């Protein structure tokens, strides 16, 4: 590591990655935002899924002030965070064949909906099977992943494939294998992951694109407002009443 504090160097690394995804993924971001807008306009529903720390970016666009009210979290018990004990259980569940099919069979997802799957490595059975099965049921799938993993690691799914192989649109987060941006001679392992920063930014860029695309078509995007500003709750009540049949986190 060269000049600068570790904090400075982490910010530099994260900002560099953000510049890369802004410039190199612009076309995919536009396509993903358009897909979400198309889904909303056609009466479809929106879902996001992520396991482990990848779930943070999925949760960031659900029931979010300034976000689309129609974005629902596709939750898989035990894998959406570190609130399970032991925390390693979530990692183990990601590798279980058949779990994604069971989740989808009991979820509200149906043909014509859109599902955003966030998985940094894209190598585990759960995100791969979820994408494969969802598309087979007529769901459009957007994958947010680091494509580098497909070149530098092996798949843990029985097909030998990765998340990126089963998506209508792929957003590459550009995160290096291992997800650690810094190294010091005095520390035996690389540290300071940036995947959450970059993936959350990608998700918000897609949602922003979807909202603007709907507006360009003369459709008011179903956005939520902060409940901490005057009139926010009234605004959100109106949106939720209008789109209640496509919002599942309030039932």
Automatic annotation (TrEMBL):
Residue ranges occupied by any SIS domain in the UniProt entry: 36-220
Entry-linked InterPro entries: SIS_dom (IPR001347), SIS_dom_sf (IPR046348), SIS_GmhA/DiaA_subfam (IPR050099), UPF0309 (IPR022951)
Superkingdom field: Bacteria
Pfam families documented for this protein: SIS_2 (PF13580)
Cross-referenced HAMAP family: UPF0309
Protein family per UniProt: Belongs to the UPF0309 family.
Entry protein name: UPF0309 protein GCM10009787_02270
Organism of origin: Streptomyces bangladeshensis
Organism taxonomic ancestry: Bacteria, Bacillati, Actinomycetota, Actinomycetes, Kitasatosporales
């Amino acid at each position: 590591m060269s000049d600068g504090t570790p904090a400075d160097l982490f910010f530099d690394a994260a900002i560099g990655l953000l510049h890369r995804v802004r410039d190199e993924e612009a076309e995919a971001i536009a396509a993903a935002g358009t897909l979400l807008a198309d889904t909303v306009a056609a009466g479809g529903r929106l879902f996001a899924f992520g396991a482990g720390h990848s779930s943070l970016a999925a949760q960031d666009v659900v029931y979010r002030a300034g976000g689309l009210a129609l974005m629902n979290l596709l939750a898989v018990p035990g894998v959406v965070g570190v609130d399970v004990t032991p925390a390693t259980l979530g990692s183990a569940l990601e590798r279980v064949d058949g779990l994604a099919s069971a989740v989808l069979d009991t979820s509200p997802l149906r043909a014509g909906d859109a599902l955003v799957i966030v998985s940094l490595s894209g190598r585990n059975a759960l995100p791969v099977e979820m994408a494969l099965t969802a598309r087979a049921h007529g769901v459009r799938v957007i994958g947010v992943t680091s494509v580098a993993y497909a070149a530098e690691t092996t798949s843990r799914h029985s097909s030998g494939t990765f998340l990126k192989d089963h998506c209508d649109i792929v957003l590459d987060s550009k995160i290096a294998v291992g997800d650690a941006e810094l190294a010091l001679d005095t520390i035996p392992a690389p540290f300071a992951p940036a995947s959450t920063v970059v993936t959350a930014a990608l998700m918000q860029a897609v949602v922003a694109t979807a909202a603007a695309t709907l507006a360009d078509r003369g459709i008011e995007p179903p956005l939520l407002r902060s409940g901490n500003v005057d009139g926010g709750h009234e605004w959100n009540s109106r949106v939720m009443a209008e789109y209640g049949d496509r919002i599942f986190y309030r039932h």
